[in-house]
Amino acid sequence: MSSDRLIIFDTTLRDGEQSPGASMTKAEKVRIAKMLEMLKVDVIEAGFAIASPGDFASVKAVAETIKDSTICSLARAVDADIDRAGEALQGAASGRIHTFIATSPIHMKYKLQMQPDQVVERAIHAVKRARNLVGDVEFSLEDASRSEFEFMCRIIEAVIDAGASTINLPDTVGYGEPQEFGEMFGRLIASVPNAHKAIFSAHCHNDLGLAVANSLSAVRHGARQVECTINGLGERAGNASLEEIVMAIRTRKDIMGVETRIDATHIVPTSRLVASVTGFPVQPNKAIVGANAFAHESGIHQDGVLKHRETYEIMRAEDVGWHTNKLVLGKHSGRAAVKARFDALGVSFESQAALDEAFARFKLLADKKHEIFDEDLQALVLDARDDA
Ligand code: KIV
Ligand code: ZN
């Protein structure tokens, strides 16, 4: 089922909410889900319906509100979980049950205390049960990146036969390395006889800071769904960040060869909403959505950007929802940026000497202040004129 369309599955409301301290109310989840729908996210994982009455109510409310994205609920490979997920999704225009069981030796032995054969049986049963409730079932092999290849082939083939149309391979503990993780997808897709009947999906955690790199590598090896969160929120060090994946796919279409349907102009407002609802601020140097992501301070960069934006910009700030890019005036700024700012403020100089004098005063001030604002520039010109 390979195509050039990449499905964006957002799990901010489920895995994102698993960030310690990031829990959200039903109303907050519905608000975020509406933004995700505007972003044109394909699948919104709204929660884990059996986890609590509140989570059930949230999944139900999101399912009843959102019409343009598929709404998904997580469920362990346990009857009660699957039934509860199905119940929460009844009002959805398009609903998906996402059921999972761990497949790595360490999880099967210590956590599940089950034999591999029992895990396969449980997975088949779960997928069949979910398929009786909804037409769209995703199956995850939890801890796939630490699972044995032959066992994964066996369970994937069985759950596709049982009716799963998406096979998700999570790097649950963020252990994967891009080359190895991508090749795992390529080998599985080539080895499982009925792989063409399903979409393969990557779900990466960021314990080693590799979640986005691992997801992109999976895409280059055949994954056609990526699971991610706004601002990279998620369990422990978080999940792959939606904004980074979407913009990497778009900016490097030349090598990625896939497209999403995301309307990126809603990225920054969605990031802000998630940050304010969860109380998790976005670091200034965070890619795409950090306050400095499109801000230039060095004189060389500012001069380049003023001559041609693409000298130092690979994306347009406006395309991801910023008002504009930003030339920050500070001690590294050069004459070109300072002059451009004076021009924008309508301040002109009668001679080159007067401009040189203003620039010298600017540099003195910049040594004392992190950032020079428009009011500082105006005051500086008035002081220069008073002193003249
Ligand atoms: O990280 C993980 O393995 C998960 C699964 C439940 C998909 O979040
Ligand atoms: Zn996860």
TrEMBL record:
- Which of UniProt's keywords are assigned here? Acyltransferase, Amino-acid biosynthesis, Branched-chain amino acid biosynthesis, Cytoplasm, Leucine biosynthesis, Manganese, Metal-binding, Transferase
| GO (cellular component) term, any one | cytosol
Q: Name one GO molecular function term.
A: 2-isopropylmalate synthase activity
The record's catalysed reaction(s) read: 3-methyl-2-oxobutanoate + acetyl-CoA + H2O = (2S)-2-isopropylmalate + CoA + H(+)
- What pathway does the annotation place this protein in? Amino-acid biosynthesis; L-leucine biosynthesis; L-leucine from 3-methyl-2-oxobutanoate: step 1/4
Described by its record, this protein's role is as follows:
Catalyzes the condensation of the acetyl group of acetyl-CoA with 3-methyl-2-oxobutanoate (2-ketoisovalerate) to form 3-carboxy-3-hydroxy-4-methylpentanoate (2-isopropylmalate).
Name recorded for this polypeptide = 2-isopropylmalate synthase
Organism annotation? Simiduia aestuariiviva
